[in-house]
Every structure is written in C-alpha cells, then in structure tokens.
Amino acid sequence: MNSDPSPTDCEALDPVRRVQAWLTGLWRKDAGPLVDIMLKDRAETERQLKHPDWKVRCTALSILELHWHATDDTAFAQTCEDTALRDVHPQVRSCALRILGVCHANRPNSRIGRLLASVVLDETQPAQCRNGAYLGLYHLRGLRVPRLTDQPTVPRIPDDFDWTFVKSFL
Predict the structure, then answer these.
(1) Is the CB of residue 121 less than 8 Å from the CB of residue 94?
(2) Contact 59, 67 (CB under 8 A)
(3) Is 83 exposed, middle or buried (0-12, 13-18, 19+ CB in 10 A)?
(4) Contact between residue 56 and residue 84 where contact means Cβ atoms under 8 Å apart
(5) 108-160 pLDDT tens trace
(6) In 10 A of CB 99, how many CB atoms?
(7) For 29-65, b where at least 16 C-beta lie within 10 A, e where not — what string?
(8) Residue 63: pLDDT band by 50, 70, 90 thresholds?
(9) DSSP for 59-104?
(10) What is the crossing angle of helices 127-140 and 90-103, to 10°?
C-alpha cells in the first residue's frame, strides 16, 4: 500500500501554494483572464497599470508586489508614488500608498513618511486613501500592522488610528 501523498494532497498541505492559489483566485475575480498573462510577463503586468478598469490596476499593483517582488525596484517605488498621487480611483491610490510603504520598508526616508502621514491626516482624502497610507506607515517602519479586534477589519477613522504614531512622521 502506497502511503505517499498525491501531488494534490501535497499542494493542499503546502501553505505557500495554498496562499498562491488563494491570491490567484482573488486576482482572477477582479481581472479575469488578464491574470494569467500578468503572472507570466512582468512587462505586461506593468502595462496593466494603465488599464481603464480600476480593479485591473489594483490587481496589477498586487501582482507586482507579491508575485514579481517588485518592491525592491526603485522604478516600481516611483510608479507607486506617482499612482498614489495621480490615479483617479481612491482604491487604486490606497493600494499604491500601502505598497509605497512596503517599497521603502526599513529604509530611512522622511519624505515618504511625510507624504504618507500627510495623506492620513488630510480629512479631504477618501477613507480608502487614508487607510492605505496608514498601513503604508507601518510597513515603512518595518512594523507589524496592528490587528483589529472587532469588525470591520479595515481601520476606522479616527477610532482605530494611532495619531501619535502618524504624527511621528512629520
């Protein structure tokens, strides 16, 4: 009797593959068949940052961060900054603001810290942008993002924000 697990069983047990499959499913929900192309071609993923559908743009940012590991690339960091400041959709800006913090994680960069903090503090900014910038500040300092104990899982403004932490970047 063969007790070796089948490849399907191994995939079910491998947490990295499980997370990759989960992410791919999320990405496909928002970007459909473009995901398969973006997972094979980084340049194509970068082109999708100009796609007219905001969900595809968010997916492209996520794929560049998590699949292509582009956060160490200074050109990608600049793209995130440009997107954070100029994209028309607040959810795309939010994604870019969070990833901008990841791109500069554990590197002293007071300009990026001030930029992110200014978005968090700007009450005229959409809540999504303020949340993305807030999360970006934690990434920038290389800190674990605090877990929220009650619903919703997205930080509520102003209740869930550590304002002393935000102002420490100014």
Answers:
(1) no
(2) no
(3) buried
(4) no
(5) 789 999 999 999 999 999 999 999 999 999 999 999 877 655 555 667 788 78
(6) 28
(7) ebbeebbeebbeebeebbebbeeeebbbbbbbbbbbb
(8) very high
(9) HHHHHHHHTS-GGG-HHHHHHHHHHHHH-SSHHHHHHHHHHHHHHT
(10) 10
* pTM greater than 0.85: yes
Give the span between the Cα atoms of 155 and 152, in whole angstroms.
Answer: 7
Asked if pLDDT for residue 4 goes beyond 70, the answer is no
DSSP state, residue 124: T
Q: Would you say 77 and 100 are in contact if contact means Cβ atoms under 8 Å apart?
A: yes
Q: Which of 108, 31, 23 is nearest to 68 (CA)?
A: 23
Least reliable range by pLDDT among 33-47, 91-105, 134-148: 134-148
Say if CB 117 and CB 167 are below 8 A apart.
yes
